[in-house]
Each structure stands twice: as structure tokens, then as C-alpha cells.
Design a protein that fits this description.
The chain has about 140 residues and is α+β, with helices and mostly antiparallel strands. The chain has helices at about 5-10, 20-30, 45-55, 90-110; strands at about 35, 75, 80, 85-90, 110-115, 125-130. It has a three-stranded antiparallel beta sheet, covered by helices on one side. Strands 2-6-5 form a three-stranded antiparallel beta sheet, covered by helices on one side. The longest helix has 18 residues, at about 90-110. The chain is globular, with a radius of gyration of 14 Å.
């Protein structure tokens, strides 16, 4: 089955790096689980990033330690639970989505890092362009 992003996800990804959007577009086509981009999943202001930091949901405070979200080089996603049809941040669901995102990135030759593979702070919904992608902060 092939999926595509809905209106909310398309709106929430506005301003994201076009290479990352290309990876996401291909990933949603090949993923066996549908997925989307939540309201705070794309580009973030300093205030939005600081709020997530204060809630313990990010390691970047947006001021002294900026997030890749602030420059449009990162995105957070949620999976759609195939049983309930509702948004899911379940590890297994996000791992399936991550497999599609990483496969898509490989196909397109775009380096992408998945926060689910990080040590210390595991951030399963998070994907960002790799350090060697020529990111300008």
C-alpha cells in the first residue's frame, strides 16, 4: 500500500530543507505504516524549542544549543497505528517508519540520522540531515 501526506502534515513540514522533504515523500510511499508530521515536528522558533526543552522533550534549549529544527534540517514524525488508525509514538511503529525513512535516504543518496539510534537521549520520532550534508546553521 502506498501512502501520502495529508493537509496537516504538508502544512507542518513547511520550511523544512527540500532534501529532507524528498526523503520523507519517498518514505511515505514505501512505508508499510502510514505516518505524519505533528504540529511542532517541523521548523521551530526559539520559543517553541525552549518550551520543548523545558518539558524535557528536547536536549536543545533553542538559545545556547540550537536544534536542527530551527534551521529546517530536522523533522519529527508520528506513526499511524495500523490497528486503531490513531497517531502512535510506539517504539515498534516508529522503528518501521524509520526503516522506510532510512531506506529512502539511501536510495536518494541523502545522509539522514535517526534519533532512535542515539546514545543517551533516544529520540525515536526525530530525523535530521547528516553532518556531512553541507548543513549551514
Amino acid at each position: 500500500m502506498s501512502y501520502q501526506f495529508g493537509k496537516s502534515s504538508l502544512k507542518n513540514r513547511a520550511g523544512i530543507n527540500p532534501d529532507l522533504i524528498a526523503v520523507l515523500d519517498r518514505a511515505v510511499e514505501i512505508s508499510i505504516y502510514d505516518f505524519g508530521i505533528p504540529q511542532s515536528g517541523g521548523v521551530r522558533t526559539v520559543a517553541q524549542q525552549k518550551e520543548l526543552f523545558d518539558q524535557g522533550l528536547s536536549m536543545a534549549d533553542g538559545l545556547t544549543h540550537k536544534s536542527h529544527h530551527q534551521s529546517g534540517n530536522a523533522v519529527d514524525v508520528f506513526a499511524i497505528d495500523p490497528e486503531t488508525g490513531k497517531a502512535s509514538w510506539d517504539h515498534e511503529h516508529l522503528a518501521v517508519v524509520a526503516a522506510a525513512v532510512l531506506q529512502s535516504a539511501s536510495e536518494l543518496g541523502i545522509e539522514v540520522q535517526w534519533g532512535g539510534l542515539w546514545k543517551g537521549f533516544c529520540d525515536r520520532p526525530h530525523f535530521q540531515l547528516g553532518e556531512n550534508h553541507g548543513i549551514v546553521e
